[in-house]
Write a structure and sequence with these properties.
The protein is of the alpha/beta class and about 475 residues long. The protein has 16 helices and 13 strands. The protein has a domain of about 260 residues.
Length: about 475
């Protein structure tokens, strides 16, 4: 049986294959930022975990797990890092790649990472990332058998230890042999990152695995629905395309447990309005080791997020991603970058991120309180929400799971815009004030303020056009 301290073998950098590039890799020109991208294989034996006899996944998050049987695995991880060690800020963001779309999905090329000198490691710890879901078959093995044909993950039950072993391969105490995936960088801290389904996996890692491995120096959970994944799922994988996923989606998207409050490392959750609804019954107060942010007027998926993914999708699959009309149009990326910036400072010995107001709820059962425009009250107020040209919310356009994740956006009429703002200059002045207020609150970074004001000018022109 694995003792929970196994180290897998790293090989690479990986090259070749029928496509000639790593799936999901960057479309940004890394050269202009002094970055490079490499891919490596991770090959070894992983343990799976179970709850100790007589225990349960309790609401308080203090789960007692133990390793049990083990199995061989082989997967991949990508590394984005500065080519000049002097530019490295000491923090490695270790991404639990998301597989809800039936294939590996990860970022790592945001302005915060590239301009501030982080390293990013995107790990493929789940079975779907390697083997896909029939009949789509978008996993690595089917996408490029020549490059990835030897990869194998037996079950998601082994994902937690696979993720741990990837962390050990890139962390402070990694082996310094002939192959160093970090290129000799002086790694100071590892921050675990996961979004959506991956955030649920990290929720379980926080509650059950971190006390055993102490593998990470901090956790950043994005768009987290408030429930950790089961430790043991066998052959089950999440398939959003399955008809059963849409039936009862709202009931499933409800938080069931807290994140344990007795760790000695920081944990931060950053949610849109949709996950704020899911987490309402499991909200927990900020502390010296926990921060919880909710953003009003946002949703799990945005139009801008889909457009940002499209270049990768078109390169890897040969067709552009279809952008869903009418979904939410307030992107979360600037907020995620601000949270990452805050987590870097926090795990480096600085102050915790500022506490933020929560989305307002009222009634029985509790529902989001909305203003005269239909926009949620309370919460983090990004400038597109505070100085609106449209009603953005988590209210879905239909009842299927994709619609629920996308929320909605309803533009104001030109007449309504004219009543709210006397002219373009007044609108932009109000927008800039709101953006600077968000910066002062710590939920926007200075580089994003100027970019959002430029986007606001184009948005106003489109909103007032009668052509």
């Amino acid at each position: 049986m694995d003792d929970g301290r196994a180290r897998a073998q790293v090989t690479g950098p990986v090259e070749g294959g029928s496509h000639g590039w790593a799936f999901g890799g960057p479309t940004v020109d890394f050269g202009q930022y002094g970055f490079r991208a490499d891919e490596f294989f991770l090959d070894g034996t992983a343990a799976r975990y179970r709850l100790q006899d007589g225990t349960s996944p309790s609401r308080d998050g203090k789960w007692a797990a133990e390793p049990c049987e083990s199995a061989p695995f082989k997967t991949r991880f990508v590394v984005y890092r500065p080519t000049d060690p002097a530019r490295f800020n000491g923090t490695v963001i270790v991404s639990w790649n998301n597989v809800s779309a039936g294939h590996d999905l990860f970022g790592g090329d945001s302005q915060e990472i590239l301009e501030e000198g982080y390293a990013f490691v995107g790990v493929t710890p789940q079975r779907v990332g390697v083997h896909g879901i029939a009949p789509m078959n978008l996993g690595l093995v089917d996408w490029d058998k020549e490059r990835y044909g030897t990869l194998s993950i037996p079950s998601d039950d082994y994902s937690f230890d696979i993720y741990t072993q990837a962390a050990r391969a890139v962390g402070r105490d990694r082996p310094r042999g002939e192959i160093d995936p970090m290129g000799g960088l002086d790694v100071q801290r590892l921050i675990a990152l996961g979004a959506s389904q991956s955030a649920a996996r990290l929720g379980t890692y926080v509650n059950a695995i971190q006390p055993l491995t102490r593998a990470f120096d901090g956790y950043l959970l994005q768009i987290y629905f408030g429930s950790g994944s089961p430790l043991e799922v066998g052959d089950f994988v999440i398939n959003l395309a399955a008809p059963s996923m849409s039936a009862g989606t709202n009931a499933r998207l409800r938080g069931n447990n807290l994140l344990r409050d007795d760790l000695d490392v920081p944990v931060m959750v950053v949610n849109s309005e949709l996950e704020a609804i899911a987490c309402h019954e499991v909200r927990q107060p900020d502390s010296d080791r926990f921060r919880y942010w909710e953003s009003a007027g946002t949703c799990h998926v945005s139009e801008q997020g889909q457009r940002a993914r499209s270049p990768k999708y078109e390169r890897d699959f040969g067709a552009p991603m279809q952008v869903t009309p009418g979904i939410n149009r307030v992107p979360m990326i600037p907020l995620f970058d601000a949270a990452m910036h805050a987590m870097h400072g926090w795990t480096s010995g600085g102050k915790p991120p500022r506490s933020q107001p929560l989305v307002k709820f009222a009634g029985d059962p509790p529902a989001v309180v909305r203003d005269e425009h239909g926009i949620a009250k309370g919460g983090i107020r990004l400038p597109q929400v505070e100085v609106p040209l449209e009603t953005n919310s988590a209210i879905p356009l239909a009842s299927d799971v994709y619609s629920i994740l996308g929320g909605s956006s309803e533009p104001f009429s030109p007449e309504k815009v004219g009543k709210l703002y006397r002219n373009r200059g007044e609108y932009l002045e109000e927008f800039a004030i709101a953006a600077r207020a968000a910066q002062s609150a710590g939920v926007l970074l200075p580089r994003d303020v100027a970019a959002l004001v430029r986007q606001a000018a184009a948005a106003y022109d489109a909103a007032t056009s009668t052509g």
